[in-house]
TrEMBL record:
Belongs to the tRNA methyltransferase O family. SUPFAM superfamilies: YaeB-like. InterPro entries: TrmO-like_N, YaeB-like, YaeB-like_sf, YaeB_N_sf. It holds the Pfam family TrmO_N. It comes from the Archaea. This is tRNA (N6-threonylcarbamoyladenosine(37)-N6)-methyltransferase TrmO.
Length: 127
């Protein structure tokens, strides 16, 4: 749900099937902002042990532990009802501050992209 003062800014958004939600990771402790290396902990759900996880630069992951705690999530927009957007795929805590919403456009699609093996492993687990 968006604040009443911004309801008018949603006009036309319902024509899109997908939108980006830009947020602030407000639950990440401030002292974590100095961490530049992280492990993709989401791989733990695949049965990997923490010591088996790769150590990576934070900018090569989607970890909420970041020098600047800004989150970006692509979600499916089902419908708009006034100030409320009904979406699927939002991976934020209830009450997470949303700082912007942007429509997804077909010209944003990347082609001939590459990514590391650990991402392929994670992607297979969510199919």
């Amino acid at each position: 749900e968006i604040l009443p003062d911004y309801e008018e800014a949603l006009d036309g958004l319902e024509k899109y099937s997908h939108i980006f939600i830009i947020s602030i990771f407000h639950k990440t402790p401030p002292e974590y902002s100095s961490l530049l290396k992280v492990r993709p902990r989401r791989l733990l759900r695949l049965g990997l042990k923490e010591e088996d996880l790769p150590t990576l630069g934070v900018f090569s992951t989607d970890s909420p532990v970041r020098p600047n705690p800004i989150g970006l999530t692509l979600v499916r927009l089902f419908r708009r009802e006034g100030r409320v957007l009904h979406v699927e795929g939002l991976d934020l805590f209830d009450g997470t501050p949303v700082i912007d919403i942007k429509p997804y456009r077909p010209d944003y699609r990347a082609e001939n992209y590459s990514y590391p093996d650990w991402v392929k492993l994670d992607a297979r687990s969510s199919i």
